[in-house]
């Protein structure tokens, strides 16, 4: 019977055949231990000389790393294994014999591994990270579908910059200028006026010449927008969503988190409500912690976000940033127009901002004024202004960066490991 590694739990005591690759092996004189992988998981195959034909045992001893195989054997419970099962191998059929596989069990430098990313993905650690990423994606669709959201796909090619920045990838769109999308937000606002509650999930691009461990040139964003949602409604949805995806990973990826040696006690605390701190209070907190160089009106860098997060054991909202620091579309606080009704959600353990969100300006005249203040071409935003002319309502939204969230949940140092083929400042290969 053909099966997969992830499904062997249903075949204890039965003979099965698994199509797989040899990840690694070790052997003594009379027994060979084969570390097998098939994409769904990893299992140890045990080949005992006394129980197989001499040819099979010789084949097992000579197998090379990453050779592809059909392995037949009986599934056994193995309480010593994190996976819980092993395979008593009875037959091996070689599909393709690999030679000189470049990634060996020894230590390799990061650049070497990145040059071989197409092969590095096969390793146990990278497999675990990709499985956690997949669970976050699955849980995201589950959450928003259960909440009555409609998935909408905004364009990747746009004629303007939603954030009003110059860090854009420019291309020619026949005889006019176009840019790779930095965010689907403005289009999602239009969709929310049609469908109520919407979310997008797609690639975004930032031509930012940054080399930090938190930045990618191409990354994936989850961007919900909700009609009739005000500032506090938006924060409540965010904490429900983040809690849902974290708890889903804890429930469905326990083996992967073990592989990554993740301290799950910190993730288990990620349940609503999340603490909130205003920008004003965050500045005061930083001064108490010795960051005397930061003044009101300055933006926070990674060290500042980390220092703020250290004061809490859950993700923390920093709210009410100065209007001057944020994009043109954010709604001012009616009681204090020098700050906006926005929040950044800062992950614990030094992982920084994973969500940026706000209530959006819904007044036509105020939005028109903001476009002028930011020196943005009103003609390019004509359609966006029209959303405020035809049945405007209070509305809010946010964007979550998938890769930063994966890095935090997995407890890994750099976002380059959180996406299958990272695009970095000096890397477009493979």
From TrEMBL:
Keyword Ribonucleoprotein part of the UniProt annotation: no
Enzyme class of the recorded protein, top EC level: ligase
Protein biosynthesis recorded as keyword: yes
The Aminoacyl-transfer RNA synthetases class-II family profile domain, residue ranges: 130-430
Entry superkingdom: Bacteria
GO terms under biological process: asparaginyl-tRNA aminoacylation
Entry's family note: Belongs to the class-II aminoacyl-tRNA synthetase family.
HAMAP family the UniProt entry points to: Asn_tRNA_synth (MF_00534)
Protein name, UniProt field: Asparagine--tRNA ligase
Originating species: Aeribacillus pallidus
